[in-house]
Amino acid sequence: MKNSEGGFGQHSEKSFKPTNPIQLKKILVVSDTHKKLIDFKKLLQIYENEITDVIHLGDNCTDADDFIDLYENLNFHVIKGNCDYTQRCSDFKLATFEYIKIFMTHGHEYDVKFGLNTLCYEGLERNANIILFGHTHSPLLEKVNDVIMMNPGSLSYPRGVVERTYAVIQIDDDGVNCKIYDFSLGNSRVLKELSV
Predict the structure, then answer these.
(1) DSSP 8-state class, residue 2
(2) What is the rounded distance in angstroms from the CA atom of residue 34 to the CA atom of residue 189?
(3) Integer angstrom CA distances of residue 167 from 14, 121, 176, 188
(4) Would the CA dihedral through 123, 83, 97, 180 be positive or negative?
(5) For residues 44 and 151, what is the distance between their CA atoms, to the nearest angstrom?
(6) Backbone φ, ψ for residue 115 (5° rounding)
(7) Given this model, what pLDDT does residue 148 score?
(8) 105: left (phi > 0), else alpha (psi -120 to 50), else beta?
(9) Topology at the third CATH level for domain 25-195
(10) Do residues 34 and 60 touch, judged by C-beta distance below 8 A?
(11) Do residues 139 and 133 make contact, with C-beta atoms less than 8 angstroms apart?
(12) Nearest-CA neighbor of 181 among 30, 38, 71, 48?
């Protein structure tokens, strides 16, 4: 539930700036590819030499299997969605990238189609700086108090927008930069951006 200032409960300000020099992290984030892999493959080819990690937020988590062996230099983080029936993908993951904690989930278990309060509370409980989710097929990027909430949308079947979308998170000495891109015409155009 939001407090009177529009935020979620009492939560101390998190730092999005490193205290020591760090190694650049650039993370490709996709969700809801639903076995339509051609654009996922194109993105990996485009970003292969720029990114360090790939996050797939489910539906279908097995879509990443085709690429994990091909891109051994990349770290893949794969989450199970509501259309995934494999036991080898987890429902959520909390990972630290340099000094930034990212909570990843598909979102269906937090009813994200009906609001973000439950998911936001879960992320706050886990002391996350960034909360990533999918499921709605609609891109979202906003800062709620001191937590970034981001949904990359769907690379295959968008809802509420016409653009097929994905996201990139960059973590460096200047802080965190999050962008959501339109990939509808096979090239990338920034739709939303947030830097902290």
Answers:
(1) B
(2) 22
(3) 22, 23, 13, 10
(4) negative
(5) 19
(6) 145, 160
(7) 97
(8) beta
(9) Purple Acid Phosphatase; chain A, domain 2 (3.60.21)
(10) yes
(11) no
(12) 30
Determine the residue type at 137: H
Tell me the helices (H) and strands (E) count for the chain, helix number first. 3, 11
The model's pLDDT over 147-165, given as tens digits with 9 standing for 90+, comes to: 999 999 998 887 877 788 9
Q: Would you state the pLDDT for residue 9? A: 43
Q: Which of 12, 9, 16 is nearest to 121 (CA)?
A: 9
Could you tell me the two tokens for 28?
């490709």
* E strands present in the chain: 25-30, 53-56, 75-78, 92-97, 100-105, 130-132, 139-144, 147-152, 165-172, 175-182, 189-195
For 118, the 3-state DSSP assignment is helix
Q: What is the CA radius of gyration of the chain?
A: 16
Residue the block writes with tokens 């439950």: 118
- pTM of the complete model beyond 0.85: yes
- 35 CB neighbour count, 10 Å cutoff: 11
Low-confidence ranges of the chain (pLDDT < 70): 1-14, 185-187
